[in-house]
Amino acid sequence: MRKKASFPTAIPLFIGIIAVSFSSIFVKWASAPASIQGMYRLLFTVLLMLPFIGPYWSELKSLSFKKASMLFASGFFLALHFLLWMGSLKLTTVSSSTIILALEPVFIVFGAFILYKERTSRVSMLGMGVAIVGAVLIGWGDIGVSRDNLIGDMLSVFGTLAVSVHMLIGQKMITQVSSFIYSFVVFVSAVVVFAVYNLFTATPFIGYPGKDWLMFLLLAVVPTVFGHLLFNWLLQYVSATTISMSILGEPVGSSLLAFLLLGEQMTWFQIIGGLLAISGLVVFLNAGRLSRKAIGSQVGEPLKSA
User: Fold this and answer.
1) How far apart are alpha carbons 111 and 105 in whole angstroms?
2) Domains of the chain: which residue ranges?
3) The most confident of 21-25, 76-80, 146-150, 166-170, by mean pLDDT
4) What's the pTM?
5) Is 110 helix (H, G, I), strand (E, B) or coil?
6) Which of 43, 79, 92, 231 has a 20 to 30 A CA-CA distance from 187?
């Protein structure tokens, strides 16, 4: 059962959206392979978390084999997500790649219903539909027909499916372990998966320029600590579906940053789509309050503030 938040969850969700929007920019600025970027991104994040592990050490040592296996599975799918999605950015534009992330809440909703019998209200579905239409418009002008672009789009699709599985496992495990231990073990597991992959493919671990190492560190601090780590922590207060819907803001932020920092152009379709995506996101995040208001008006009762 999820905890009741004593603060507006929209604030950390918004911070997380801004943070993850920088991820594609840093990936584009680095020349290292996606598997190396993903490995060092998470390794540096683990190192940043190590000084704070003291209070959680006993919990870490007492993890059962079943829990550890589930956490490793979550880490495996997170690594797979980074490998596929970051790889897609090498083949297509930021807008084309991040737009595919709009599929995440669709995968999450179906997965949450099948696994956890979690239902989504009509208002939430309406907000989701508007946001997805908006997200599709953002990348409509950039989805290319070249072979590389098509491969990049497919990599992003499978990467989105992988992160959806990661989020669904996380929704279950966050009720059984602390959010810190969940994130720490998942990130360590993903680092191990990346290391094995790089060894197997003979990808060099060192020899990259200084700019790449700076990007590895920025990927760890900005989109991982203030993005994924924050989202993992929020899973104890909100559903995986809500987190995935919030991430719909990433195509908006990433497309704008790509325009400003990478010179990638935005069409009117993308601008209109961004406005629709934000509007749908607002409706989704306020679905519970809107539904209660509708019910209250039907029975003639005033709506109580949350």
Assistant:
1) 9
2) 10-299
3) 76-80
4) 0.79
5) helix
6) 92
